[in-house]
Design a protein that fits this description.
CATH architecture of the largest domain: 3-Layer(aba) Sandwich
Strand order of the largest sheet: 4-3-5-6
Strand content: 15-25%
Number of helices: 9
Largest sheet: 4 strands, parallel
Number of domains: 2
CATH topology of the largest domain: Rossmann fold
CATH class of the largest domain: Alpha Beta
C-alpha cells in the first residue's frame, strides 16, 4: 500500500507501508504549523499511535491538490487544511468529495467570524502568521542586542548595530535604544566622557547610523540629581556640578562634530518624539544608500 511520507509543492516522496491506521493529512499554503498543532492536540485525546499525521506544506497550485487527494484516497484518511485562497479550498473540497474523503477546514470559520466582528474582509495572503512570527523574533533579537550593548557594555556591537546613539550620561540613550528595539532596530549606545576617548569605529560609521543627543545643562542637572537620590547617593557632587556638566556637554559636542553625525536636542522631549526623529534620519539614509 502506498504511503505519502513527505510532500511539498516541489516534490512528492512515495514509499511502501502496510500500516493500515488512519492518516490525517495536514495541507497548508504556508508551513502548516497551525493545522498540524490542532491535529496533534486532537490525536492526543485518543490512544497513542491511533492515527498518523502527515503535513503537506506550501501548496499553492491546483495540480498539487489533485495529487495529494489521489494519494489520500489510498488510506482511511481525513484531510485538514489551512488554505486562505478560496480557489484552492474549493478545489480541495471538490476533489476530496469525489473520492469520499472527509475534510476539515480549520481556517475559514475563524476568518468568517472575524470578518463579521470587524466588518472587514481578510487579506487572504498565505504565510502571514509566519511573517508575524519572524517580526516578533526580530524584535526580541533587537531588545536583547540593546541590553547587551547598553552604555558601552559591549563595544563590538558598534559594527553590528543598525544605529549607534551617543551622548553624555543621563541623556536618555537607554530608553531611546529600547524604544527603537521594539521597532526591530538594533541600537547600541555609550556615554561620552572627557576622560575616555570614544572608539574609533564611530568615526567610520555612515552618518545616518550615528546619532548624537544634546540636552540642556539645567535639565541634565535635575535629572542627575534625581538619579543619585534614587540610588541613595549623596556624596557625588562632581556628577551634578554645573561646571562638570558643561565640560561634558562641550566635549560631547566636539565629538559629534568630528563624527559628522546628526544631533537631536532631547531637552523636554518624550522618548517617542526623539525616536521619531531618529527613525526619520536612519530610514532616509538607508533609502539613499541603496
Amino acid at each position: 500500500m502506498l504511503n505519502l511520507e513527505k510532500a511539498t509543492k516541489e516534490e512528492f516522496v512515495i514509499s511502501t507501508d502496510n500500516d493500515l491506521k488512519p492518516v490525517i493529512y495536514v495541507i497548508s499554503d504556508s508551513v502548516g504549523d497551525t493545522a498540524e498543532l490542532v491535529a496533534h492536540a486532537a490525536a492526543c485525546q485518543f490512544d497513542q499511535d491511533t492515527v498518523e499525521i502527515r503535513r503537506v506544506s506550501y501548496v499553492n497550485d491546483p495540480s498539487d491538490i489533485v495529487e495529494i487527494v489521489e494519494e489520500a484516497g489510498n488510506f482511511n484518511s481525513l484531510i485538514t487544511y489551512t488554505l486562505v485562497l478560496p480557489g484552492l479550498r474549493e478545489r480541495l473540497v471538490t476533489e476530496a468529495t469525489k473520492r469520499g474523503i472527509p475534510t476539515l477546514d480549520i481556517m475559514t470559520p475563524m476568518l468568517e467570524a472575524l470578518s463579521t466582528l470587524t466588518h472587514s474582509q481578510p487579506r487572504l495572503e498565505p504565510g502571514l502568521v509566519r511573517k508575524t512570527d519572524e517580526e516578533y523574533f526580530r524584535k526580541v533579537d533587537a531588545i536583547e542586542f540593546a541590553v547587551k550593548c547598553d552604555d558601552g557594555k559591549d563595544m563590538r556591537g558598534i559594527n553590528k548595530a543598525d544605529l549607534v546613539i551617543i551622548g553624555v550620561s543621563r541623556s536618555s540613550k537607554t530608553p531611546l535604544c529600547m524604544y527603537l528595539a521594539h521597532k526591530r532596530i538594533k541600537a547600541a549606545n555609550f556615554s561620552l566622557v572627557p576622560e575616555v576617548a570614544p572608539p574609533e569605529e564611530i568615526f567610520r560609521l555612515p552618518s545616518h547610523k550615528l546619532i548624537g543627543l544634546r540636552i540642556n545643562s539645567q535639565q541634565l542637572v535635575e535629572i542627575r540629581r534625581e538619579r543619585l537620590k534614587a540610588l541613595g547617593i549623596t556624596s557625588n557632587a562632581d556628577y551634578i556640578s554645573m561646571e562638570r556638566i558643561n565640560k561634558e556637554l562641550e566635549y560631547a559636542e566636539d565629538i559629534m562634530k568630528r563624527a559628522g553625525c546628526a544631533v537631536i536636542d532631547v531637552t523636554n522631549k518624550a522618548v517617542e518624539e526623539t525616536a521619531s526623529k531618529v527613525l526619520e534620519i536612519y530610514l532616509r539614509g538607508e533609502r539613499n544608500s541603496i
